[in-house]
Structure formats: C-alpha cells, structure tokens
Request: fold
Amino acid sequence: MIKPSFNLINASAGSGKTYSLVFNYVKELLLNSNDDHFRSLLALTFTNKAVNEMKSRIIETLSEFVKVEDCEMRNRISAQINLGQKEIRNKSERILKNILFNYSGFDVLTLDSFTHRIIRSFTLELKLPKSFEVVIEHDEILNEVIDILIDQVGIDKEITKSLVDYTHYKIDNNDKQSIKDIFLEASKIILNENDRSFLKKIRSCTSKEFQETRIELNKIRLRESKKAIEFAQSALNKLSLNGLNESIFSNGMVIKHFTSIIKNKFEGIYLNKLEKNLVEGKKVIKKTGNPDHLIHLAETLLPEIYKYFMNAKKCILKCMLIDELNKQWVPVSFISIIADTLSSYEKEEKKILIGKFNEKISQVVEEYQAPFIYEKIGEKYKHFFIDEFQDTSILQWKNLKPLLVNALESEDLNGKYGSVFLVGDPKQAIYRWRGGSIDMFLKFLKKRKFNNTEISIGERLENRRSLCEIVDFNNKFFEMALESISDSKYRSFYKESFHQNIISPKGGKVEIHFVKEREDITHIKKTAEALLEAKKNGFDWGSMAILVRKKNQAISIFESLSKINIPIVSTESLLVKKSSSINLIISVLKLNVFPEKSIERINICKYFIKKNDLGKYSHDIFVNSLKGSIKDFTNFLVKKFRFSFNPIQGDYLSFYELIESYINDLGINKNFDSHIEFFLEYCYDFSIKSNNVFKFLKKWESDSEKLTIPLPDDTQAVRIMTIHKAKGLQFPFVVLPFLNSDFQPGFRIRRQVWYPIEFENTSVNFGRINFSSRLETYSEKSKEIFDNDKKENELDALNNLYVAMTRAEVKMVIITSIFEKLKAKKNYSQLFHEFLKKNGAAPDLNRPYLFGSKDCFYIPNRNETLKKDSIKPIFNFQWKKRLINKDSTNSLTERGVKVHILFSKIENLSDVDLAIDFCIKQGFFKIENKFELKNLVNEVISHHKLKKVFEIGNKIYNEKDILIPKKGLIRPDKVVFTETACYVIDYKTGKPKPDDNIQIKNYSNYLESITSSPIISYLVYINETVIVKNIPKYE
Reply:
C-alpha cells in the first residue's frame, strides 16, 4: 500500500519552481504502470502563459528522456524510483505518444479553466443555461446592470425615493461624483472575494432595516453633536467666568476650537497640534504681553480645558463616523438589488462573469461529494500539482479542499492513495487585492498537517537565475530591509527564508543611483543613460527591461525614451486604441451614428493631415471639412486626400464587412499591422452577437482602455512593465526607476473598508467608509482595522520590492531619491539610505553606489533564434471574391445577393450613380456592365407602380431592423412612408414562387400594428425584365 503524500515546497525567486513541478509530475508518470496515468494528474497554475510553459516543459522533458543520451533529470529520477535508464526511455516514449494522441486529457490548466469545467458540468444544479458565455471583463456588464437599475427611477417607488433622497444628500454635501460611478464602485464588491463575508451579512439585511438603521444613526449623530456643543459651551463659559479670552492663548486656538464646535463646524478641527500641546502643556498659553496672574490662572485651568476637549472630541468622532457611513449608506443598501439585477441579467443574456466562478463552485462543493463531482466532469484526479500557491485565494482553496481530501484519503483499485504537490513563495505574494493570502502557506509551514495527512516541507533557497554578486547584494539588502516589517509573525518567517544560497557563477553588478526629491525627469534621464551604457556593453535591446510600480510612470518613461530612438514596448504602446488607423475607423463609425458631431470630421482630417504632412494647411482643411452634409464631407475627403468612405454602407453591410470596407476605402490596408489584425478579430467576435454600431461603440468605450496586442517573446526592444506584470519573468539587464514609494498608499487614493457598527438599536451591523488617517481614532476596533491594513501594506511593499529586485540575471540598476527631510512614513528610499549607511557609504547625487563586478559585459547566446524587430501580418481582403469564384453553381444566389446590396444603397433617384459606382468598386459587378446596370435600375425606379416610392422627400428605411411589439425584429428590404401610405418592398430574383407572398404579407401585417397609414405591398422581380406584383393583405 502506498501512503498518501502532501509536499509543500517553499521556493525562492529564481530557484526553479517550474523545474520542481515538472520533475515531480514526470516522476509520478513513470512510477505508475499505466501509461495513461497522466489522466489522473491535474496541474493548476494562474496564467495561460504558465500553463503553456509547463505543458511544453513536460512534453520536452519526456522527449529528452527518449532521445538524449545523458539527461540530468532522467538520471535523478532513475536514482529515486529505482528504474533503469532503458526502461525509463521506453516508458517515456509510450507516455508521450499517449499524451499526444489524447491531448485533451493532458490536464495542465489555469484555476479559472478548471472551475469553468466544473461549472459547465453543473449547469443544471446551478440553474444556468447550458450554452452560457463566460465574460472576462466585467465593466461593460456592470455598466448595463447599473443602467437597468437607474432606469427603474419613476417606476419602482422604493428605488425612486432612495435615489432622490441620496441625490439631495449629495447636493447638500457638495459631492460631485455621479451616482452611476458610485454605484459602479459598489457593484464591484459583488465580485471581490475579499468582500465576500461582508457581502453575505449585508445581503441578509432588508431595505427596511437599512432605512431604520440610517434613521437611528442620524438620531445618534444629532444627540452626539448636541453633547459636543454642550461640552464646548461649558469650556467657553469656564474661561469667560475667569476673565480669559482669545488673547491669553497662542493664536487664540483654544477659543477658536470650541467656537467652531458651537457653530457645528467639525471638519478639520483636529488637523492642528492643539491636542498634543494640551497634553504637553506647551505652546498653548501666550506669555508675551499677558499679566502673570492671568497666565497662572490659564495654566491652572488647562487640565479642565483638556477634559472638555476630549469629551467633545469623543462625541464629534462619533458624528464624523456616522457622516462617513452616510456617504456610502445608499450604495451599500443597494448591493442586494444590484446583485439580484446582475443575476437576472446573466440569466436573460446567458452570460456569467468570471469573477463569480469561485462563488458558483463553492455552491457545488458545499452540496456535493467529491466522487459525484468527478463523475459529472468525467475525470477522477488522484494527484494534484499546484503552482504559485501563495497567490491562491481562501475561497479557491476552500473549493479545492474536498477534491484534495478525497485524493489523499481514498484508495484506488490497487490500494494506492493520491498525492498533493504545492509550490510557492510567500515573499512573492503580491495579489492580496484579488483574494490571495499567504496565511494559508504560513499555517501549513507551521502545523505541517492537512486534514489527516502529514505535510512534508521542502525548500529551494538557491538562486539559479542571477549571477553571484546580484544574489549576494539581495541577501544583504533584504536582511536589513525586513526589519521594517512591523508584524513579528511575518518578520520571523522572512528572516528564515530571505537568504538565498549562492550557486551561480561569479559576476554580476548592482548600481544604486540617487536623484533629488520630486525630480521625476532625472529618473527618466538616468534610465536612458543606463540603457545606452548597457547597449555599449553588449546587451541587446531585447535583453533589457524597465520595471515600475505605477502605470503613469511607465507612460512617462515610454514617451520620453521613444523620442530618443530607443526601441521600447510597453502595455501602453501595445494598447489597441493607440493605433491612429483604428481611431480613424472609430471616428467614421461615430460620424455615421452621430452625423452632427463635427469633432469627428476634425479627427478624420487630422489623420490624413498627419499622414500627408499637410500641417501648415490644417486650419483651411478643418474649416472646409465642416461645410455641408456627410455626403459633402466624404466628397471633400476624396478630393483632398483621395480616400473616403461611403456613409450609407452600414445600411446594407454586416458590421464586420463594414469594418473591412473602411479598412479598404480609407487606405488602411496598405499599412496593415498587428493592431489592425487584433482589432479585426475583436470586431469579428462582436459581429457574431450583434451588428449594431452604437452597441459596438459603447463596448469599445469600456474595452479600449484594456485591449492590448500580444507581445512576441522575441521582440528586439526594451520592455517596460509594472512589477506585477514582471512576476515570473527574468531579464539579463533590469532598471528600477522611481524606487522611492511610501509603503502606505496615499490618502488621495480612494479606498474603502468595512466598518462594524457598534451603536445600539441598529439592525445593520456593517457599513462601508472611506479609508483615512481618522480611521484609527474612531474606536479600538477602528484602530485594529487601521493597524492591520498598515501591516499588510508593509508586506505588500516589501514583496513588490523583492519581486522587482530578483528579476535581473546579470546587471541591475536602481534609481531612488534623496529626501531633503527625513519622512515619517516608511519608504523605499529610506531602505537604500540605511543600506548604504550600514555599508559605510552615503548617498551621492553625482556618483552611483556600486556593488559587484567593476565591469559588466554581456555575451548573448548566439544559438538563440534570430530576434525580430517587428511583426507585420499579411492580410488579403479579396477572400470573398475567391470564395464566389470557386462556386459557379451558386451564381443565381450570388446575383440575388448583389442585387439586394445594390438596391439597399438606393433611397431615391439621386443615389443611383453612387450606388452603382460603389458596387463596381467593391467587385460586385464589372465596370463594362455599368450601362446595363443603370438601365436595369432605372427600369425599377421609373416603374409606374414604384415612382412614388423613389421620390425625394419620403421617409425611407432600407434593410433596417424594425422592432414589432411581442414579435421581435423584422428586416424588410425597403419600407417607405409617403404622405398617404406606407409601402413595403421585397426584391426577388429568379422565377416567381408561391411562397414569395408569405414573407411580405407577414411584414405588412406586422407594420399595420405600429402605423395608422394604409399598407401597400409590392414584390419586385428583377431579372432581364422587371415585374412588379401588388400583394393584397388578404387573398
């Protein structure tokens, strides 16, 4: 019988976590006699990139075991499992073939993918539609949900009253943030795992309880403010009776303080040093110019004045707390309604937000046993491998736990138990904001037990990534830096695991540069200098990286370095919206939907002005572009720039075809790049669900801030990214500018915390308040919340620094600040100051502090694949023509489609030439057929039955969706409203068929329900001759 095993590996940065996972995964495959054993193994990690890397490494390792003569990992496994080299080779070959032939059973997945699989298997139990769509970006959905909620104003009395009252409250308090934005913020609580326990409590409260609690809180506030005023009045009376006024106190502060309270002006009265001065008995009494007896009397009364001060303060803090609770009270009270609205929306639209996956899975694991879950998903896993365990959230772990327990505590048919293999590094835990918790990791390290299974702890503390001097520098630096951790529990762990064993080759260099405080431009200048020097020393651009904490820092560096011809890529530069060509398409789409928007004409002209270097003529171009109609504008573009677009294409082309036509007509296809390719894919995905341009623009508005094109690994350019994005990556040369951040987030950053309501007679026990320095003063509980947040922020700051400083392989350049005055708050700059001081050095603005090799040259591996400077995809817009030409049997259908496109462009007589020219340009008809085509069109529009239909001045709908109550959308070929009637036209090609009448009759009947005009219906057969057939409603 093989006992269960639970292995936890505490692996430092660069120690080979992936190697450990692959080693143990492959070893488990080889230990089992079944060559399909991989189907019983499940490896979980956090990103698709990590999944691809692990899968590739496993396949490559098995392949090496088969082909390579002397293989280090094969030798190690052979020694551990007592299996001969030949046997391992043969078995590896069989396993490899089985994996490749049954690749879908090779389960190396992201946690999200695994939970998605379980949810798909439990759609019935979770009451989900079978064909639901997973939504990764939640902003668009939450926007729509809040719109639905706000639309209830005037319909739902309770919602209307709450929002009207809240609007008045915001006006009274001069709060300018829109209600929609506030509610959007509140709606994100629903998807945040850190808020889950509070969310349950809030959702258990009724709207009535929220109203009653708010009324009670306002009563308490009124009572406490009166008490504060009484204390203030008593203090002033005491001073007045003793003949003391403002002149006896420094700056009159004491009198002014109590007077402000009487006037109900509480805001900001505790921002000065009056309380500290009262406690110390200093700087309160003005001794210059005042008689001794009054000074003595005032000094005697100070203890009593301090007592009044503190009594009033206790009352005022309660008032301030209630004011803070009131700011978020209505949004918090609406969370249940928002959550219910979101659930209804998801059900109706058959969508589910990825942020709700873990919540859905928790419903499954709480209700069903592991064997039933395995039965539903069609797999039974006995061996689990989990990467980046320090980033696993509490809820994710809770959901996995039943499956792990089942694997460890149940035997298979051969009497064998399962296993669990976890790898992580608590020092790289930088995802607390999304539910990641290192406490589980630390708990396992301490207790060494999971359920009934002993945990075997392993450590990988050697660094295989960085050269010797970089590892040595980090060891010494973090040994000193960890003293800044306030929490003794965390500090104790870090002391034991920060040090890395040096096994790497000699060499490596660290530079610390100091710049003056608030000189951001110097950080960028030093960064540029470091990159150019590295280039001279043999580092190629693709081997360099710049890591920063904030996105705005990345943007500043990118914009500056781009000007001095350093090839650089960043998330910002890869944003799809950064493409001028895409912005041109968006402007054209906006102009089609909102023809009155002159700014879009200007934006379109700006593109062509820049492209054609016509800046000196821009004023005249702008003035002329604003004249006339949209048609006049498109004609102006053709005349001026030789490119334009057809403003009525959207009436007859699908959305995706419309985008293609713009790319072609505006000349963008001549400069096709990765941005356009990505944008086309994005448009195609949208077109599957909708052809509505307005909906697309709305979606684009929310998505464009996040959409980036994927960056190839072999790009020859310096990469700039945030430290979070750099986790798991490594670079020969790394620059770390702006390393001067405070450990604590600034109070300007909007943050909110849950606060326990401890007042009597309140039904709701939790509210939400803005995080501020005042939080630690409200109560002992609030101080505990404040202190815990402070400790967690310290840990986040140090972990971020650790991740940043362990990315470099050969050389690292740190750029930090010298502060004129020592800052009270802990920050990165202080750490580097203290490090230099400890090493007998001092910060110098003119010279960097050097650690390691004097010279640092880099010789890249010449065996690497040749790196690319850019990627330019090839795209052919003639695919539709090729498809048509391949299928000659479909010529009649093809002709029908072309005729529909032609006539969908024609509203009245004036459109004929433009429509024909467009169809010829698009390749629908040949230019030599232009004369025949014009005759055919004229035969239709001049037909005695259709003359009125094509007259100028009618209201015309060509190929437009029309919403019919209780019936849905219909899309007739042409609907025309004249002064006397409503005409419905259906174009046909080929021989008349009995069924032709059915559709147009339906159209007529449906339209009759929404218009009082008499309906006249025509079937128009367009062949060599034109036949117009009147279709009566009833036959």
Notes: Confidence is low (pLDDT under 50) at residues 862-890. The first helix runs from residue 17 to 31.
